[in-house]
Amino acid sequence: MPFANYLELLKLRIGGMIALTAVVSYLSMAERVSLAHLFWLTLAMLLGSASSAVFNHWYDRDIDRIMERTSHRPLAMRAMNSSNHVLWLAGGLLISGVGIAVWTFNPVVAIHLFLGAFFYGVVYTVWLKRRTWLNIVLGGLAGSFAIMAGAASVNPALCALPLLLALVLFFWTPSHFWSLAIHLKEDYQKAGVPMLPVVVGEQKAAYYIFINSLLLVGASLLPWYFGQLGKIYLAGAMLSGGLFLLENWRLIRTPTREMGWRNFLGSMRYLGILFLAIVADVTF
């Protein structure tokens, strides 16, 4: 079905996560919440994320055919008449997202939205993914830019809280994605993509994840330490951090595909608890 094919190109689950990140950042900064602003911010972030997702589908269609997880994607299956026309779709989505950001908010939101799409679509997909195991470390800045965009929709000036939360997202992404890469190691190996577990093996990758997660949990305490968030947030950060480090330790002891997947899900739980703690702290 053509519509289903186009819908799959948008990677709406990733877009939803990016939009949620921006919304949480907005809520952490806003003294009064505007439902209209939440709607337009969510839409702008979805459009920006979708633009880079479409480009990612187009650029990676060759290796997507090799990997079992991605072999069903429309461009990998040649299910669309022409693959190059989707670049127009990617451009249109990005222009629409940036336009909404400027029209509804300010140019700073638009810049962060653009940079998020650029880092995922170009820095990660084109420059780094096939060259170095550091691909997701730098490419993962897309999530950090979502934090900055959400905060800038309230106040375009550079503020401490969004910078600290952006640092948390920066450290979260490698632990999240390297866990998935352990689960999908054979796929990445077959496609020749140098994800960390492919380069150093599952055991060493598990240690890297644990070390990175220690930095993540440490970074998550900084908003409390610098007085930007209070005790509710601190409790959530400590709870989510403790649970996630426990999952990381289990992965070190048993670095299997199944435990990689379990740690991947644990990273989602970690971020969910942290987001709830941010919203609860600023609300109550």
What does this structure look like?
By secondary structure, this protein is an all-alpha fold. The protein has a domain at 159-284: Up-down Bundle (Four Helix Bundle (Hemerythrin (Met), subunit A)). 78% of the residues lie in helices and 0% in strands.
CATH class of the domain at 159-284: Mainly Alpha
CATH fold-level topology of the domain at 159-284: Four Helix Bundle (Hemerythrin (Met), subunit A)
Number of strands: 0
The largest sheet is: none
Low-confidence stretches: none
Question: Mean of residue pLDDT?
Answer: 95
Topology pattern, helix = H, strand = E: HHHHHHHHHHHHHHH
Number of helices: 15
Strand portion: under 5%
Q: How many whole angstroms does the radius of gyration measure?
A: 19 Å
Computed structural class:
mainly alpha
Large-scale geometry: flat
Please estimate the helix content. Answer: over 70%
Distance between the first and last residues' Cα: 47 Å
CATH architecture of the domain at 159-284: Up-down Bundle
